[in-house]
Amino acid sequence: MNDLIVADFYDISGEKETYVLESFGIYYGEVHGYFNAYSLQDAEKLNYPEEYYSFSNATPLFSYLTEEELVTCARNNGKITLEEIDKVSERIGKDNDLTNVVYRYDRRNK
What we know:
single chain, alpha+beta, globular
């Protein structure tokens, strides 16, 4: 649970998409394996591949969990299943009126 964050990404037209990412140390991976990403704060220190997406703000996933979900997670020693993550992600999408589309971000054109 501690390695999971929720981050917003923007496509070329400025549309916002929200995804759950897992930390892999120096980069993040979308929980379904759709893409890899990095924090813009880390971009100055490391040279990420062009196909990685970037994000500027992120929030820990546990901030979006209900009391019941937090209790369930605590009972499971802080672990959360992909199915449970999908439910939270769906709720975040409905709350923010978002769709679940993966965009390709080209850093060279920004």
